[in-house]
Amino acid sequence: xxxxxxxxxxxxxxxxxxxxxxxxxxxxxxxxxxxxxxxxxxxxxxxxxxxxxxxxxxxxxxxxxxxxxxxxxxxxxxxxxxxxxxxxxxxxxxxxxxxxxxxxxxxxxxxxxxxxxxxxxxxxxxxxxxxxxxxxxxxxxxxxxxxxxxxxxxxxxxxxxxxxxxxxxxxxxxxxxxxxxxxxxxxxxxxxxxxxxxxxxxxxxxxxxxxxxxxxxxxxxxxxxxxxxxxxxxxxxxxxxx
Length: 242
Prior knowledge:
Layout: H1 3-28, E1 38-39, H2 41-44, E2 61-66, H3 77-92, E3 101-103, E4 109-111, E5 130-135, H4 146-163, E6 170-172, H5 173-176, H6 186-193, H7 196-205
Parallel strand pairs: 1-4, 2-5, 2-6, 3-5
Antiparallel strand pairs: 3-4
Helix pairs in contact: 4-7
C-alpha cells in the first residue's frame, strides 16, 4: 500500500468515525414529549372562526403572558378559556383566542389558537412568528403556582423542539412590547430576569428533569399563590395589557 492509498484509507476511517458519532448523538437526543396535562381544543369545546390567510406565519419566537386579571379560587379554567374566546370574537373581532396555549393554576394546558396562525394582542408589536403562551392569573397580585411553572416550562420546551426555536428566542410580552405593558407581571418576570426559566426549558430539551423552585415571595411582592386564595392587597386597576 503506497502513501497516497494509506492517506485515503485513513480519511475514510475518520469520516466513518465522524458519521458514527453524529448518528449516536442524533439517537441520544430524544424528542420532547407533549405534556400530559394538555387539554385538546375539542375537549373544552373550542369554536374558532375562519382565519384569513394573512394570519398564517412561521413560528420563530415564544412569548409568555399572564391574563392580567385576578384568578379567583373555584373558577373553572375551561369556562375561563371559553369565555375569553367568546369575548375576543365579539368585542375584539379576533377569530380565536389570542394565545396558542393557556395554563391553569392546576397545571392543565389548554390548547387554543392553531400555531399555524400568528397571535392577537392589545398592544402593538410585529406578531408574525410569535407563539403565545398565557398563564391564568395576575402576577403583580398573585404568585404563579408551581404546577403552572412546570407546565409552562414543558410546553415551551415542546414548542421549541417542534418548531426548531432556540431558547434565546423565548421572551415575555413586556420584552417584545416595551413601555406598553408589564405583562406577565413581576412575580413571573423574576424567573426570566434571573435566567431560571430558560434553564428549566434547557433541561427539558436535554431530556433532564428541571429543578423548578418558585423561591420565596419577592420583597414587597405578592404572597398568595394563584388558585389558592385572593390577594390581601387591593388589586391594581391598571392598565396592565396582557
